[in-house]
Every structure is written in C-alpha cells, then in structure tokens.
Amino acid sequence: MCFNCKTIYFYFFILKLTSSSIYSQISLPPFFSDHMVLQQGEEITIWGKASPKEEITGFFRGEIRKTKASNDGKWRLVFINASSGGPYNLKLLGKNTIELNNVFVGEVWFCSGQSNMGWPLYKSENGINEIEQSHHDKIKLFNVKRSMSGIPTKELDPKNKWTSCNSKTTKNFSAVAYYFARELYKRLEVPIGLIHSSWGGSSIESWMNADDFSNDKSKHELLQKIKTLDLNKLEQEYKVAEKEYNLYLDEADLGTEQNWQSVNYDYSTWKNIQLPNVWRNTNLKNRVGVVWVSKSIFLTAEDASNDLLLSFGLIDNEDITYFNGYKIGSIKKNDISRKYIVSKELLKKGKNVITVRIKNPLDIGGFRSGKDSLYLQTISAKISLAGTWKYRVGTNEINQPPDRVHPKYLPSSLYNAMLYPFFDFKIRGVIWYQGESNVSNPNEYSKLFPKMIQDWRKNWQKKIPFLFVQLPNRANMGIKLVNFREAQNQALNLDLVGMIPTIDIGDDYNVHPANKHDVGYRLAVASDFLVYNPKILGHYPKIINSLTKSKSVLFYFDQTILNKGSSKIKGFEIFKDGVFVSNTEAQLLDDKTVAVLNSSIDYPIEIRYLWKDAPSEVSIYNNIKMPLPPFRKTINN
Asked: pTM to 2 decimals?
C-alpha cells in the first residue's frame, strides 16, 4: 500500500474514533444540572444526546423510564406530573452515568428584557444589605450568559448552570427577578426557579422571531444578512475597537495636553452652558468626544475649614473631577452617581474652582441627573451648583466612533440565542421589563409587543401567563413615555397578560431607578392575582363606570381606593378651550368614587390622569399600595 494511502486510512480511522467518542456519552443541555427547578403540575421531560441507538435509563422520584437514542443521537425521557417538592436526585444510565443532585419541583419563571431587568442586586437600593441576607435554599437561579445568533440555535454555553440563592450568587443576579422570587416564595412556599435572560439596551425586535418580520422588507434584508455572520465574534471585535477609540479620544484631548484643570488657568474665554443637561439639549455640535466644564464658587472661612461633599449625580460616560487643580475623583461608568469628598486641605476662603473633564465615546453625553443632584454640601449649607458653567470642547475634530455591534440593531439575535433554547423547558410564566430602547416608536411597539407574546406562547405550546412592567416616571422625555405606556397596554387585550404600574417608584433623572424591590414585589402580587389565586378584582384599581353629574365627572372603581397624597387628588386634567387644564380639582366622594370638577358641560369631555412622563405626585392607590395607572378617557353625552 502506498504511503499516501496509509496516511489517508490512518486519518480516517482517527476521525471515526473521534466522532464516535463525541457521542459515546450521554450529554444534557446546561439547564439540566444540579440545583435545577422543574415545573410542577406538568409532565417532566428530560432530553439530550448520546450515541445512535444507545439505550438510556432514567431514575427520578421512584420512577424508572427507558428510551433509545435516535439515529442522530437524540433521546427524550418523560416522567409523570409532579407536585412541588425536593430535593431529589435524577440519575441517567447509558454508556456513562449522570447523576444530578439537589433537584426541586416547583414554579419556574422566565425573566427577560433589557437593563432594568438585568440590573444587578448589588447596584439596587439596599442591595448590599439584601445580599447578606439572600440565602434562600428553595430559590434557584439560572443566569443566561449573553449571546447572539443570526439563526435559531438550541446550543447554550455549557458554563450556564443552575445555582443556589445565596450571597455569592445574588450579587450580580437580576434584582427585579430576585425580589419577585422572594415574595413569591413567601406566598406559595414552594421551590422557585428563575431563568434570567436579558441584555441591556436590547430592543423588542431582538427578542422576536424572524418570521414576525416577513412583511417588513428592511428587516427581512437585514435578517438574511446576519444569518451568515458570527455576531458574538463581531461584538468582541467591536469591544476592542471601542477601547481603541477611548484611547484615541484621550490622545486627541487638548485639555489634558494643556492642563485646563490648572488652578491658574484662565476660563474667561470659555462659553457658557447650563447644567445639569445632556449634550443633545445644549449648543454642542457633537455629543461624542471630550468636553471640559468649570465653575467658580466662594466659600467662607468656616466652610473652608471642613471637608466638603461634591455631588453631580449621573454623568455620561466618564468624568475626571478636579478641585482647585487637584484631582478628587473619577468614575468611568455612567450608571454610578458621582459623590466626591473634597479634603479641607484643598479648600480656601473665597474663590474656589471646580473643573470636570467629561469623556463620552457613545450615546448621550453630559449630566443626566436633575438640579437637586448638583450641589456642594458644606458644614453650614448646601450650595446648588445648577445653572451657568463655563465649557470648552477638548476634541474639536475627531473621527466618528466605530459602528456599534449590539442586539438593539440586530432583530431576532437574542430570540435565536437566549430564548429559543428554552422553548422545550417547561415554565409557569414570564416577567418582562423592557421598552426603553423602543420608547420613540410607540405605534410600532403597540403591534410588536402582542405579536411577540403570541409567538412565545406558540413556541412554548402553552398560553403562559405574561407579566410586564409599565415604564416608570422619567422626566424630560417630551411625552414619549406617556404615549409608550399606552402602547404597552395594548398587550392587555390578550388573555393572561398582566401589567404593573411603576409611575410612582421610578427616578425622574435616571433610566435605571434604584428601587427594584417594589418592582419585584408588585410582579409577585400580580402573579398571585392573575395566576395563583385568580380574583375578580385586579391588583390595581380599575374604572368600571363613569358619568357626568352636577358639573363633575364621576369615576367609579372596582375596589376601595385611597388618596395617598394631599387633601385634594392631583393629576387630573380636563380639555378646555383648546388645552388641557392642569391641577383640575378632584376629590374622593366615597371609598370607590372620585369626582373631577368640570365647570363646562360641553361634550365630548376629554379627561386624563397622570398624563405626563414624570408626574409630580401620584394620589390614588388601593389597599395593597398599588397605584391607579395613567389613563385618558373621552366621555360622550
């Protein structure tokens, strides 16, 4: 036999041996692991891969099930319905043995959306204290690692595993999902499993089936293109380019080169700017790059004798802050509130100078918090820093940043990689916190959101309950949030869909409100009302009738309501003389009726409540502290 022939036969033998060994062992998807929770009240299905025709035997809760792998190595075992319980062991025998320990049967919820769903517990209000107390033996967590794909895939990163709920695992887990599970366990006292799959900044389109865009020519063309791309590789390449661009901005910055932070620097030629403000609301032509701002303040001898607190709130993205020429702090992330201690050694009686270098490689740029967050706290007073500052651009002529690779711009990319693998895994329902990336297109969202829910139900082959968070208060959005909340509510026309209002627990100047406890709590309350103990009354007040009487519009509610605010109910507006009149007087007539005063009896009467991005006060609640959501209504004669 020729040498080349021997070589070919040798490599063929090795290839056959290798390919055989790949399937010589039973293997499972990552969500079948120690500490997993399986959905109670449903047939329990376990599946995986093995050698073709390999016999597999499964042992679970005293049951024995047998099957044989198909020609392509796929196999499936089905155990009878189980009520809640555990811990159990699951054992699989084939050419190898797999034994899973600490397995529970209980309630499984899929938790998805964008950054407010993904917001980790340690960044949330009281999160550090909660982490220390977060040992819950019967709450289990499955954190899906970020991944994108141009085509649907059942493959998951094998590093994805179920974990127990404790101080080591909850730190970076979804705060909303954690608080949801904690409250749900209090109510049900059964094991709770959370599958958390979210991506900050993701659009609803990224979580939708490509088939939903069959009539959208522009998206169809993009979907065809990304089918051939390795999206995860492209994202990694983008991250490298992003780091290089950050370095490029540093090198291009004249301010650093010329020491604009120097205590002797003359700022008199700099232009004025009103702060706090994001760059798009100023005269800045380019929100990407480096901008320096400076302000002089005057201190008394008493104030200069003690350390001070300097507060800016949120800055987008990176700041380096100087006081009288000395660096006092720097933060690179835009979601951390800036509060710096200024040592008394840096202070002097009379004029002092604050200088801040802001670098923004992407997105918004500027000071994102409200006026109340911009101040200097001395020993005697809080000095507001809101108002006129001086500014100068450090990077006048620069290259544009690299094109961002992000699921926000890639429809179906997260559906394919972070949702599709779970459609065979049985769950009770979904909690969803998303919309900030779609807030500019409410009409489109009103159609996409119900369509997405229906597709998820089709693929899970069950009308799964779906609970979503109505977006909270956030100021200066140009009534975008008002319209978007109404668009979200279109999904309530579907059965077993529930909404929680959060218009009273957001942050007017932060897209990421710190209060995640109340969001999770309200979702758990909604699940109790909608799923576990269905009630005639809803979890928030609803209007059941309205009529006009004695120059008033009367609203009748389905349950007892309370006025949590001042003596008069605030938030109602009536359309009159071509405009909506704010602060329209309203009051409780009894525990289920609100009267809104209306001097005119001209029909139709247009009336609305909390019809603002960020209302100053929320008045109407029910007995379980759930607010009446925003609404508008036209009353005909």
From this structure: 0.92
